[in-house]
Amino acid sequence: MTNNEISKVTNMILHIIFIILTIACLLPIVLVFMISITDYDYIVLNGYQFFPEKLSLEAYAYIFKDYTIIAKAYGVSIFVTVVGTLLSVFISSLYAYPISRTDFKYRGFFAFLIFFTMLFGGGLVPWYMVYTQVLDLKNSIWSLIIPMLLSPFNVLIMKTYFQMSVPPALIEASKIDGAGELRTFFRIVFPLSLPVFATIGLFNTLHYWNDWFNSMIFITDTKLYSLQYLMYKMISQADYLSRNSALIQGSATELAKLPGETIRMAMALIGIGPIVLAYPFFQRYFIKGLTLGSIKG
Q1: Is 59 part of a structural domain of the chain?
Q2: Taking the model in full, what pTM does it have?
Q3: Residue 265 sits in a domain of what CATH number?
Q4: If we measure between CA atoms, which residue out of 161, 234, 219, 226 comes closest to residue 192?
Q5: Residue 159 CB coordination number (10 Å)
Q6: How many CB atoms lie within 10 A of CB 249?
Q7: Structural domain containing residue 111
């Protein structure tokens, strides 16, 4: 056994530790699923269980009673997430790359400008007025994309990565070969920076997919509801009907039995479904040492 190898006992212990951690991550998801298919009255009497004696699909029946609404919300969220992520990564990189270059005359001004927006904002009312009255984005799907296009935090991450991981000698060599700035960026900087692009892409994917606030602020047309906002509305309506069933004439008994707890869990599963697929796609780019050996001598 060489100095870099670990013993069989250590290897076995590490495997056991990671198996335990994996199970600890999967158990909450399994529990949420089991709750979503458990009878509501059984939960009230016995609480949450991994192996309930009485199962029910009432929560999913309530959610999918008009499946076209869910399908439209899925379409909106997928479009916003894909388009928003691509545009955000592209715009952030085009801002971060120039301010990472020491030969850019105004790098200090633009770096301060993006950092300043992390500390101070114009406020909610001016922000809303700009998007609705100046840009006229009320009830537009672009109102779910444009407000989150440029994140100062993401720009600073990319700036730091470009400074630390892209050798200046490569950029100088490309200039000597006659490459322009755009050609240098797309042919040299971009391939060397796939890890940070994947990281920022994952951040943006999660941000866009989980966003419901912009839908609440800008969208009143139900056809443009994002999935997360639709889930929020459905949960709020179910809670309201359950709590105020005595005040509603006719079907007070049925309303009081709405499976509120199981509906929440079912919606949680529906909401996280597609986003799980994003992790394997981005994970393959989380690697180091891409610039290793790119410069000789």
Answers
A1: no
A2: 0.78
A3: 1.10.3720.10
A4: 161
A5: 24
A6: 6
A7: 64-295
